[in-house]
Amino acid sequence: MSNIRTRFAPSPTGFMHIGNLRTALYAYLFAKKSKGQFILRIEDTDQERLVGDAVKAIYSTLKLANLQHDEGPDVGGPCGPYTQSERKDIYKKYANELLDTSHAYYCFCSKERLDSLVDETGNRRYDKHCRYLTREEIEQKLASGIPYVIRQSVPSEGVTAFSDLVYGEISIENRELHDNILLKSDGFPTYNFANVVDDHLMKITHVFRGMEYLSSTPNYNLLYEAFGWTIPLYVHLPHIMRDKRSKLSKRHGDANFEDFLEKGFLPEAILNYVALLGWNPKSEVEKFSLTELVDAFDVSGISKSSAVFDEVKLRWLNALYIKELPPQRFHSLAAPYYRAISTPVEVNLLSALIQTRISALSDIPDMVGFVDSFDGYSLEMFDSKDAKSSALLAKELLPDVIEALESLECWSNEALFGALERLAELRSIKKKQLLWIVRIAVTGRLSTPGGASEMCLLVGKELALERLRKSLSRLRAAQPVESE
Ligand code: GLU
Q: How many angstroms does the Cα of residue 389 sit away from the middle of ligand 1?
C-alpha cells in the first residue's frame, strides 16, 4: 500500500479509557512504522453524551503519551474539518446520494412505534416499515414537517464478507443486519454513517478500533459498496478485561489513563504496558520506548483473545521507568508528595533514597510516613532473628549509640556509618545487629527507604538524637518479656 493512513477517532464522552489509549497507540505505531500519517478525528455527533472537558482530556492524554498526530482539529490538514460536528453538510450530501440510489430511505416512525418493536430475543429490531412507503407518502410526510431519520437500506438477501487483519474471515447473512439509522432527526449522523464517510474522505487505509465494532462492519462495507468506494483494511482489537469476567471499568477506578496517573504511574510506563495488552512482541523484551515500539510493532502480534490488565506487571514496568529518571526529574515528580511532611528533612536525600525503592509515586506517602509519625511503634520490631537483634540488646546499646552520635561533629553518611561501625567493634557485636537497632530506634518502622546512617542523616542530628532517646526511654519503661 502506498501511503498508510490511520486514525484515532475518540468520542468526547468522558475521560480517556485505557482501551482508547491502546487503539490510539496501535494506530500511531502502525502509521509511523510505515512512514504514514496518524490522524485525530473528534467524533462528537452524539450531542447528548458529550462531556465538557473530554476534548481537553483527549489532547492532554495524546500529548502526555507523546502520540503526535499529523492531522487533526488543532493542527489542521488537507481533509478537515476533523471534528464531526463541523461536517454536518458533508454527511447530508452523502445521505442524499444514498437516498437517490435507494441505498437509504426516510423513516418517519415515532418513538412509541419504535419502542413497540421488540423481537423474539428481546432486542429492538426495526421492521423496515418506512422502506416501503410510496414516493407520494414520503413527499406528503416531508411536506407536513414530520420529523424523520435516514436509514440504511440493507439488502435482504446475500452475504457480506470481509477479512479482518486480527479476526480473519468474517461473513454474515445480510438478513441479519439492521437498517441502521445513518442521519438522526437533529441532522447529526450516527457513528454508523459518519465513520464510513470520514474514513473514506480522510483516505484512511487501516481502521483500528475496538472489537465491539466488528459485528456492524458488514453494514459499513455495504455503504462503501453503495458509494463505490474502496473498503479500508480493518484491525479490530480485543477487549481489555480487569479479570476473567469483567471489563476494566470506571467504577473500579481502573479504566482511565488519568486514574493511573493519579496512582503514580508514569505516562511512558503506562504506554509501554498498554502496548503489551493484546500485542505480543514475540521476543523476551518487554520494556519498549515509543521509538522502539514503532520498530517492533506488527499487526500479526495482535491477539484475538481478551487481554487481562495486570497491575502487578504495570508496577514492575513503572519501577523500571522510575529508576531510570534523572534524579532532578524524579525529585520534581516526588516533591508534591512531600508537601504533607511537616518535619524538616533533607528532601533531595529523601528523593535519592526512595527513587530505587518505589514502584509507583503513590507509594511515597507510605514510605516517608515515618518522618512525621514516630511514636506508637511496637518494641517487638527490635527483635530480629535475621539481624540477631532484640529489644534487650537495644536497651543495652542505645546509651552508647546516643553518646557516640552526640559527639559526632560531622553529620554525614560516612561519619555516621563509621561511628556505628566503631561502636559495634568496641562492643564486639556484629555491625548488622547495631544497624538494625539504630534504624528501628530512629524511624519506628521495619521497612525504611534506607539504612541506619541514611535515616539519621535524613532526619538530622537533633531529631535523630531525640528519637534515639525516646526509644531508649520506651525500652526502659517496658516490662522486659525475658524477666517475666
Ligand atoms: N468514536 C468511536 C469511539 O470512541 C470510535 C470508534 C472508531 O475508532 O471508529 O468508540
A: 61
Answer yes or no: do 256 and 312 share one domain. Answer: yes
The predicted-structure confidence for 33-68, as pLDDT tens digits, reads as follows 999 999 999 999 988 888 888 999 999 999 999 999
Boundary-marking domain end, from 290, 324, 358: 324
Q: Does 43 contact ligand 1 (Cβ within 6 A)?
A: yes
Residue 344 lies in a domain: no
Ligand 1 site-directed mutation target among 209, 234, 237, most atoms within 8 Å of CB? 209
Higher pLDDT among residues 252 and 66, named by residue: 66
Q: Hey, what long-range contacts does 135-143 have (CB within 8 A, 24 or more apart)?
A: 138/106, 141/106, 141/108, 142/106
- Chain segment 77-103, per-residue pLDDT in tens: 999 999 999 999 999 999 999 999 999
Ligand 1 atom at minimum distance from 209 CA: 8
> What's the domain range around 95?
89-183
Instruction: Enter the pTM of the model.
Output: 0.91
Position 70 in a domain: yes
Q: Which of 56, 93, 250, 388 is catalytic?
A: 250
* Whole-number Å distance between alpha carbons of 186 and 44: 13
- Examine the residue annotation and report whether 250 is marked as an active-site residue of this protein: yes
pLDDT of residue 447: 93
Say what angle helices 461-477 and 391-406 make with each other, to 10 degrees: 150
Q: What is the DSSP letter of 122?
A: S
Asked if 414 and 452 sit in the same domain, the reply is yes
Residue 448 counted as domain residue: yes
Number of domains in the chain: 3
pLDDT bin (cut points 50, 70, 90) of residue 481 is low
CATH number at residue 41: 3.40.50.620
* Grid cell listed for 193: 454513517
Closest CA to 257 of 65, 407, 483: 65
Any ligand 1 atom below 6 A from CB of 195: yes
